[in-house]
Amino acid sequence: MSVAVSEKAVAGGVKPRRWGSWYVAEHRIRSMRAYLQTIAVTAVGTPLGYMVAFGLGLGMLVDANTGGGGVGGVDYLDFLAPALLASAAVTVAAEECTYPMMMGFKWNPIFYAMNAAPISGKQVANGMTIAVLARMLPTVVIYFVIILIFGAAESPWSWLAIIIATLTGMAVGLVIMPYTASIEQDKGQMAMIQRFGILPMFLFSGTFFPLEQLPTYLQWIGWISPLWHGSQLGRVATFGLAEPIWLTVAHVVYLVALCVVGLLLTQRVVSRRLNK
Amino acid sequence: MPAPVITASKLTKRYKDFAAVDGIDFEVAPGESFGLLGPNGAGKSTTMRMVGAVSTRTSGELSILGLDPNEHGPEIRSQLGVVPQADNLDMELRVRDNLIVYGRYFGIPHRVIGNKADELLEFAQLADRAKAKVDDLSGGMKRRLTIARALVNDPRILLLDEPTTGLDPQARHILWDRLFRLKEQGTTLVLTTHYMDEAEQLCDRLVVVDKGTIMAEGSPASLIRDHSSREVLEVRFGSDRNAQVAEQIAGAGDRIEVLPDRILIYSANGEAELAQLTAAGLTPMTSLVRRSSLEDVFLRLTGRSLVE
């Protein structure tokens, strides 16, 4: 083989090797445009709904019944807002890390097409992750702005809740991703994830009430739940929730660890599945 | 002779105990149109995936454009165009967008890719469907779009895995015409097929593959010359009589093959064979004299027919 041809090939690999993950994300974001309206309506409608229902409805009731003390010394809405913010990120993760991952192998097998081009399995995993992030971040920012409008985040450090919620959402998403990327046959696993994973997580992660309210034998759900760690961390940022510093550090470490391990596993699962 | 663009030596792919590709050797020269002919399950697609640098070989040597796919997958793939057996276009995107996102995978800048997409739509006769949803295209159009997509990076080698399977005759001919143009422009084509007419139309040289091994190699004409007669007489006496008649006419022509529905008599002169049969009082229900094809070569080499 002439050296010139090999050299041309080597040159052809430079950009894809460097930017491949971004190309995948670009592709996925282009696909999201098809349902941009739904994304936008959900991103604005959901927080409005929750803030009105819980702030003006349930919140009044809770505050009245706690003699104006709220929960943990703050208004119920203040207590709730960071957890709702993290939940919103988790909801995006539950959508974007489930069907699109399985679809890419099965119903709309674009991952194989990407891999036939210079894109590696690892880059497919990275790109899909970046795309989830690209949808999650604006959703969280919009939610946060609405929280601000409702006056439910007063600390100057409140903005950190945006990063915390996003981290929480990605942690959940990246735990789901290796699994959804490995599904060969759709037997309703996505619905199972929603019903037996996401929903109980909302209910038992100290989202709507402090985890300590639960019987001790149920509290473990919160300890393993990224949403509990994310909500508590968000509360530290938005109203200075009092907790030991080691616990705050543990929240961060746990969430980051889930993200890292989840991403590495996803890269492995996708690469193996493509290389048959 | 210029150095080959693909060299495979003892190339093997095993799935546990099963050897999908079992130690095959072949070379493909630049600009050549090379075919892998064989029935379903022969190992053609597995070979294509290894050549496409997406499936790691179990053993043997493989070099594409002078590079080892184990080390240089992305580099090799940057020079390939791949048309897989099943279209894997993005159904969520429109026709033109499919080409654009795909071009980006090769690092083609945004300002270049738009023009390239329009050019390719023109080539694939899909310019008027640029904004259509992929789902709304016919099978032939999807196939042409897949081929257009495979050309987005001006590939040196185009890999086509059963490019016309499932297409109607008209769509196949349009596609062959497009592929022939690429061949004229000097693109190296590697294709798998189980259609002998396709192999005859498109391939300069081919290998007959069965059960993961190469049974024969050569140009379509030389394979036919070496492994079959010039003509074939096909006669039908009814499925219950074929075997019985075959015994009676044993020795006719160069060779006889008895299939469940007909008898094939291989001979340099089919008409003469038919006259002899009739003279012997054996008048078939139907008869046909035709040229030998790769189907006959395959039957001779494997004892089985290509499309089962």
Which key phrases capture this entry?
heterodimer, A: about 280 residues, mainly alpha, elongated, B: about 300 residues, alpha/beta, Rossmann fold, Alpha-Beta Plaits, 2 domains, six-stranded mixed beta sheet, four-stranded antiparallel beta sheet, 11 helices, about 25% strand
Give an overview of the whole structure:
The complex is a heterodimer of chains A (276) and B (308). Chain A is an all-alpha fold and 276 residues long. Chain A has eleven helices and no strands. Chain B is α/β, with parallel strands linked by helices and 308 residues long. Chain B has two domains: 6-219, P-loop containing nucleotide triphosphate hydrolases (Rossmann fold, 3-Layer(aba) Sandwich), CATH 3.40.50; 229-291, Alpha-Beta Plaits (2-Layer Sandwich). Helices cover 36% and strands 26% of the residues of chain B. Chain B is built from eleven helices and 13 strands. In chain B, helix 8 (220-227) packs across helix 11 (294-302). Chain B starts with 5 loop residues before the first strand and ends in a 6-residue tail after the last helix.
Summarize this entry quickly.
Chain A is 78% helix and 0% strand.
Number of helices, where a helix is a run of at least 4 consecutive DSSP H or I residues of chain A: 11
DSSP E strands of chain A, number? 0
Cα radius of gyration of chain B in angstroms: 22 Å
- CATH class assignment of the largest domain in chain B: Alpha Beta
- Separation of the first and last Cα atoms of chain B: 39 Å
Give the N-to-C terminal Cα separation of chain A: 28 Å
Uncertain runs of chain B with pLDDT below 50, 5 residues or more? none
What composes the largest sheet of chain B?
6 strands, mixed
